[in-house]
C-alpha cells in the first residue's frame, strides 16, 4: 500500500480518493488497516476506498463500548460528508457496521459482512488474556486462519504487545463484553440494504452456522462460503473474496432500468 495515514481531528484513516462511491472497510477487535491491502488494490479504481481506525484504544474510558464505536463511525461519515456508503466489516467491524446501518439506513448503499460478530462468537476477549504468554497469543492468532502460516510474526507480535499493555488489554475486554451484550438477533429485520455474507467454511470463531443465521434474519442477503478459509477471508483468500465482493458490488451499483 502506498497510502499514508491521515489524521483530522479525532479521526485516523486511509483514503484512496477518486470520484467513485465511498467503500468503507471496518476492521475487527484485533484487526487493523493492514488487513485490507488486497481490497484496496482491487477496488480503488472503482471506489473511494476508506479505512477508518476504530478508536478502541483512544476513546475516553467511559465510552469504550460498541455504542461508542458506532457513534464514532457516524461522526466520521458525517465529517467526510458522505451521502451513501458501501460498508464492509470483518468480525467486530461487521457488528459496528450493522448497528450503524440500522440507525442510518438512508446512508447505506450496501453491506458486506465477513466473519461478523453480533449473533455468536467464540474468541479471546471475554476474560483478560494471559499476559506474557507468547505461545498462547500465537496459537490464538493462528486460529483466525485455516492455514496457520497466514499468521505472520508481525501480526502475532502486534496482538501480543496489545494484550501486554494493561490499558489496551482492559479496553479489549470491555469492548468484547459490550459486543456480547449487543446481540443482533432481534434487530436484523431492520437491515434493508442489499447484504453480502462471505464466510470461511473452517471459521471456528464465528462458525458457518452464524453466517446462515445472518442470511435467515436479513431479508435482502446472500451467503457465500469459501473453503479452506477461517475467520478472515479477505486476508486468507483475497482473490476469491474480492471476486465475490466485486460481483456483488457490480450488481448493486448497476443502473436500474427505467420503468416502461
Automatic annotation (TrEMBL):
Residues 22-238 form the AB hydrolase-1 domain. Signal peptide: none annotated. Coiled coil: none annotated. GO terms for cellular component: membrane. SUPFAM superfamilies: alpha/beta-Hydrolases. It comes from the Bacteria. InterPro entries: AB_hydrolase_1, AB_hydrolase_fold, AB_hydrolase_sf. One of its GO terms (biological process) is acylglycerol catabolic process. It holds the Pfam family Abhydrolase_1. The keyword Hydrolase applies. GO terms for molecular function: monoacylglycerol lipase activity. Keywords: Hydrolase. The keyword Hydrolase applies. This is Alpha/beta hydrolase.
Amino acid at each position: 500500500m502506498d497510502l499514508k495515514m491521515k489524521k483530522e481531528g479525532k479521526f485516523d484513516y486511509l483514503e484512496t480518493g477518486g470520484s467513485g462511491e465511498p467503500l468503507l472497510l471496518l476492521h475487527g477487535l484485533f484487526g487493523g488497516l493492514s488487513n485490507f491491502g488486497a481490497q484496496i488494490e482491487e477496488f480503488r479504481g472503482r471506489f473511494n476506498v476508506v479505512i477508518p481506525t476504530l478508536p478502541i484504544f483512544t476513546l475516553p474510558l467511559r465510552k469504550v463500548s460498541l455504542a461508542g464505536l458506532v457513534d464514532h463511525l457516524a461522526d466520521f461519515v458525517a465529517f467526510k460528508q458522505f451521502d451513501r456508503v458501501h460498508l464492509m466489516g470483518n468480525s467486530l467491524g461487521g457488528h459496528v457496521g450493522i448497528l450503524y446501518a440500522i440507525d442510518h439506513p438512508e446512508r447505506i448503499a450496501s453491506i458486506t459482512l465477513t466473519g461478523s460478530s453480533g449473533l455468536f462468537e467464540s474468541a479471546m476477549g471475554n476474560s483478560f488474556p494471559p499476559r506474557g504468554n507468547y505461545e498462547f497469543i500465537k496459537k490464538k492468532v493462528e486460529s483466525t486462519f485455516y492455514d496457520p502460516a497466514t499468521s505472520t510474526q508481525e501480526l502475532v507480535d502486534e496482538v501480543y504487545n496489545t494484550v501486554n499493555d494493561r490499558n489496551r488489554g482492559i479496553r479489549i475486554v470491555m469492548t468484547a463484553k459490550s459486543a456480547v451484550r449487543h446481540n443482533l438477533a432481534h434487530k436484523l429485520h431492520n437491515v434493508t440494504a442489499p447484504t453480502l455474507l462471505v464466510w470461511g467454511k473452517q471459521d471456528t470463531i464465528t462458525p458457518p452456522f452464524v453466517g446462515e443465521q445472518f442470511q435467515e434474519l436479513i431479508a435482502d442477503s446472500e451467503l457465500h462460503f469459501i473453503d479452506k478459509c477461517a475467520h478472515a477471508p479477505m486476508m486468507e483468500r483475497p482473490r476469491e473474496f474480492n471476486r465475490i465482493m466485486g460481483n456483488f458490488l457490480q450488481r448493486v451499483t448497476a443502473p436500474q432500468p427505467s420503468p416502461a
